[in-house]
Design brief:
The protein is α/β, with parallel strands linked by helices. The protein has twelve helices and 17 strands. It is globular and about 60 Å long. It starts with 6 loop residues before the first strand and ends with a helix. The mean pLDDT is about 95. The structure holds NADP nicotinamide-adenine-dinucleotide phosphate.
Length: about 325
C-alpha cells in the first residue's frame, strides 16, 4: 500500500503498536498524515514531543463515543483500529468496561468508517479471540465478527473491513518482557506460571507489516494470521536471566497453557498464501465476484502454540530481545 498523500486514522495510536506504526510510516512516506485517536492527553503530549512531526495530528477521543469518532474519521482514507482494553485481568475485573471499549468501540469503527466514506479498515485482533476462555478474548472475538461481518453493512459503499490476528508482542506495554526486566533489576526470582506454557511470538515491526499486507490484499471480511514461532515462557526467563532462580506461581485466571491461532473449524475456510494464513469469510454478500487463490489447509489443521513446528530457543530469544 502506497501511503503517499493518504490520511490514516489510527485508533489507540499512543500504544505500543501505534508507536511502531507511526515510525514505519514516517520513515517511508513524507506526505502521509496520521491521525492519532486516543483518550489520554499526556500520552499524546509525550508522543507529539517524541516524533516532532507535522505529519501527525492528535485527536482526544474515546471509541465509545460515536460522534467524536465520526468527526475524527471524516476525510481519512484508511483506518487502523488498535484501541482496546487488552489486559486479561483488567477485562475480567471490569467486564462492562471491556465490552464497551472492545465491542461497542468495534461497532462504532464500522459505522463511522462507512458513514465517513473510508475505503479500508484493518482492525487488530489476538490469538486470545480463538476459543476464548476470558472476557478479553471473548470481546475480541465479538470485535472480529463485527469487523468482518460489518462488510454486510458496507456492501453498497466503498468501505471494506478486515482483521489481522497475532500472538504476544515482544516487549509491548504490560507484557511479560518488561515484567521480567523489573524482576531482574530488583534481583527477585522470575515468576513463571507453568514451565510448559507456550505463546506465539511476534515483533512489533512484523505486526505493522502484517497490517500493511492486509491493506494490500484484503477484499473484505478476511482475518490475516501470520506464521509465527512459539516460545516457552521458561525459555524466555532463561534467555533474559541465565541461571536465575525462578518461582512457579501457577496459571492465572483466564489464562491458557497454550494459545490457539486457528481452529480446525476455521481451517476449512482458511488458505495459506506464503507465510500468511487467510481465514476467509464463510458467507459474504459483498464482492461476490472476487475469489482468493492460495493453498487450502489440510483437513483437521489447527494452529496451536504448543504444537508448532517452529520454536524459539533461549539463544534466539536473547537475540530477538537485544
Ligand atoms: N500487545 C500484544 O501482545 C497484542 C497481541 C495481539 C493483539 N494485540 C492488539 O493490538 C492492539 C494494540 O495493542 P497495544 O499493545 O498497542 O496496546 P496498548 O499499548 O495498551 O495501547 C492501547 C491504545 O489504545 C488506546 N485506548 C484504550 N482504550 C481506548 C478507548 N476507549 N478509546 C480510544 N483509545 C483507547 C490507548 O490510549 P488511551 O489509554 O490514552 O486511550 C492506547 O493508545 C489491541 O487491539 C490489542 O488487542 C496486542
Amino acid at each position: 500500500m502506497d501511503l503517499a498523500g493518504k490520511t490514516v486514522l489510527l485508533t489507540g495510536g499512543t500504544g505500543s503498536f501505534g508507536h511502531a506504526f507511526v515510525t514505519y510510516v514516517l520513515e517511508r512516506w513524507p506526505t502521509a498524515t496520521i491521525r492519532i485517536f486516543s483518550r489520554d492527553e499526556l500520552k499524546q503530549f509525550e508522543m507529539e514531543k517524541r516524533f516532532d512531526s507535522d505529519q501527525l495530528r492528535f485527536f482526544i477521543g474515546d471509541v465509545r463515543n460515536r460522534s467524536r469518532l465520526l468527526r475524527a474519521m471524516k476525510g481519512s482514507d484508511l483506518v487502523v483500529h488498535a484501541a482496546a482494553m487488552k489486559h486479561v485481568g483488567a477485562c475480567e475485573y471490569n467486564p462492562f468496561e471491556a465490552v464497551q471499549t472492545n465491542v461497542l468501540g468495534g461497532q462504532h469503527v464500522v459505522d463511522c468508517a462507512i458513514d465517513a466514506g473510508v475505503s479500508q479498515v484493518v482492525a487488530l485482533s489476538t490469538d486470545k479471540a480463538v476459543n476464548p476462555v476470558n472476557l478479553y478474548g471473548a470481546t475480541k472475538l465479538c470485535a472480529e465478527k463485527i469487523i468482518t461481518q460489518g462488510n454486510n453493512y458496507a456492501a453498497q459503499h466503498e468501505t471494506r473491513l478486515a482483521c489481522v490476528r497475532y500472538g504476544n508482542v515482544v516487549g509491548s506495554r504490560g507484557s511479560v518482557v518488561p515484567l521480567f526486566e523489573k524482576m531482574v533489576e530488583s534481583g527477585q526470582p522470575l515468576t513463571i506460571t507453568d514451565p510448559r506454557m507456550s505463546r506465539f511470538w511476534i515483533k512489533l515491526e512484523q505486526a505493522v507489516e502484517l497490517v500493511m499486507y492486509a491493506f494490500d490484499n484484503m477484499r473484505g471480511g478476511e482475518v490475516f494470521v501470520p506464521r509465527l514461532p512459539s516460545m516457552r515462557v521458561s525459555d524466555l526467563a532463561e534467555a533474559m536471566a541465565p541461571g536465575r532462580q525462578t518461582e512457579i506461581v501457577g496459571i492465572r485466571p483466564g489464562e491458557k497453557l497454550h494459545e490457539q491461532m486457528i481452529t480446525a473449524d476455521e481451517a476449512r475456510h482458511t488458505i495459506q498464501v506464503g507465510d500468511v494464513y487467510v481465514v476467509l469469510p464463510e458467507s459474504h454478500e459483498w464482492d461476490k465476484g472476487t475469489e482468493w487463490s492460495g493453498q487450502p489447509m489440510p483437513d483437521g489443521f489447527e494452529y496451536i502454540s504448543g504444537d508448532n513446528d517452529w520454536w524459539l530457543e533461549a539463544g534466539d530469544l536473547a537475540q530477538m530481545l537485544s
